Amino acid sequence: MDATADATIDLEAAYVRSGVGEILDELDRELVGLQPVKRRIREIAARLLIDRLRQEFGAGGQAPTLHMSFTGNPGTGKTTVALRMADILHRLGYIRTNQLVSVTRDDLVGQYIGHTAPKTKEILKKAMGGVLFIDEAYYLYRPENERDYGQEAIEILLQVMEARRDDLVVILAGYGDRMDRFFTANPGFRSRVAHHIDFPDYADEELFAIAEKMLASQHDRFDAGAAAAFRDYIAARRRQPHFANARSIRNALDRARLRQAVRLFEDRARPLAVGDLITLVADDILRSRVFDQTSPAEEKP
Question: pTM of the prediction?
Answer without folding.
Answer: 0.87
